[in-house]
Amino acid sequence: MTDQNESPQLIPPHGGYWELQSYQMAEIVFDATTVFCNRFIDHRSRTHDQMVQAARSGKQNIAEGSMASGTSKKTELKLIGVARASLEELLLDFQDYLRQKGLSLWSKDNPSAKEVRKLCYLENRSYLTYKTYIEASPPEVAANTLVCLIHQTNYLLDQQLRALEKEFLKNGGFTERLYRTRSQMRNRDKKF
């Protein structure tokens, strides 16, 4: 039972990004991309830096969006969109790598692609789940593994964006919540 003088919660719980599947997968993509680039792309290359930064941006923007969600659903939506765009850029980099090196891009039905995708459903998956695909495999396997991981992460981000959009349309953002809270407080004060 709540106290009559207690005000409604203006800033809802937020953060908790480490529990989001999209964040967990983005962290795996970041770690795996860093290892891939260190193994197969010249450290002094602009491409090396851009790929690592795109992977980092995917992960960091999910965290930042989650933290901003308490006071700005608009910012959260924007940052999750930036994360999605960064990972799309990274996906193209891996596809370009395969094409430029004359290596094959696995189809969705490729048995190796299916094997990598199944790992996503393991409980407590982490970079270690995919380590041998990235660290002990030739560049074609490592790059295709990352293509699969990025597709899975992008799928999760697309789902997250749809859910955030739906929630925003239903409940509004911080400004609407602020208005509702102030109105409730005024109406309650008038009754007393």
Description:
There is one protein chain. With 192 residues, this protein is an all-alpha fold. The protein contains 7 helices and no strands. The chain has one domain. It has helices spanning 21-40, 46-68, 73-100, 111-118, 127-135, 139-171, 174-191.
Key words describing this protein structure:
0% strand; disordered N terminus; mainly alpha; elongated
* Number of domain units: 1
Quaternary organisation of the protein chains: single chain
Largest sheet: none
Q: Please state the overall shape, judged from the principal axes of the Cα atoms.
A: elongated
Percent of residues in helical segments?
over 70%
SSE string = HHHHHHH
Strand content: under 5%
What's the β-strand tally? 0
Low-confidence stretches are 1-5
Number of helices: 7
Supply the helix-strand structural class: mainly alpha
Per-chain topology:
Elements (H helix, E strand, L loop, with lengths): L20 H20 L5 H23 L4 H28 L10 H8 L8 H9 L3 H33 L2 H18 L1
Brief characterization of the structure:
With 192 residues, the protein is mostly helical. It is built from seven helices and no strands.
